[in-house]
Amino acid sequence: DLIDKDFAKEINLSKKNELTAMSSYIDELIYDGLTKVYNRRAGIPKLSRMISNQEIGYRIYSLCYIDINGLKQVNDELGHKYGNDLIITVVDVVKSHIREEDFVIRLGGDEFLIVFMNVDINVAEKIWGRISKVYEEINESLEKPYIISVSHGIVGCNNEDKCDVDTLIKMADEKMYEEKRETKKDGFSVVRKE
Q1: Distances (CA, A) of 142 to 57, 62, 83, 147, 194
Q2: Does residue 188 contact residue 68 with C-beta atoms inside 8 Å?
Q3: What is d(CA 143, CA 134) in angstroms, rounded to the nearest whole number?
């Protein structure tokens, strides 16, 4: 009788372990390991489906393409630990200032896409303004050995216009790059000097 109970426990445990492993594997397929936002492989198809499916109830989308300035310098001068901290800090601030239905996609190393639902460009810019203000507050607090600097570009889409996701991302990227060029002209260092 004891053998049966132990065997039953073992089977139960192995099922739980298997489910935990499967859940972990699914998370890896969908989410970025560092920031816990959608990775490109899962996020872009989700966005495409939403924009092409008018029955969902969302009519307007705003996409905010962001790029973290100076990540390479932080990695080179302070180490990858601080580079990762910079990425996590930037994304955590974004996540805390967007609504539940909005979401973030990590496009690449230091590039992200914020997807705002039923929000036009003007409102998206106001939300970005609040996010930028938090970055300024963190910079003023001197709590980090680096300065947070993020370039952004926002585009809008009304799904009655048959928007193309790749075109929208390219347009947002171009707008972001215009801002990044201006930042590079200033030539400031993102690493704080002792």
Answers
A1: 44, 32, 16, 8, 12
A2: no
A3: 13
HSE (side-chain half, CA atoms, 13 Å) at 118: 7
Predicted confidence at residue 53, as pLDDT, reads: 72
d(CA 57, CA 55): 5
Residue with tokens 């492993």: 21
Q: Please report which residue ranges of the chain form alpha helices under DSSP H.
A: 2-30, 40-52, 71-78, 80-96, 121-141, 165-186
Residue 14 binned pLDDT confidence (cut-offs 50, 70, 90): low
Residue 105, H or E segment: strand 103-106
pLDDT tens digits, residue range 167-189?
Answer: 999 999 999 999 998 877 766 78
Cα–Cα distance, 78 to 10 (Å, whole number)? 47
What are the structure tokens assigned to 167, written together?
């075109």
Q: What is the pTM of this model?
A: 0.86
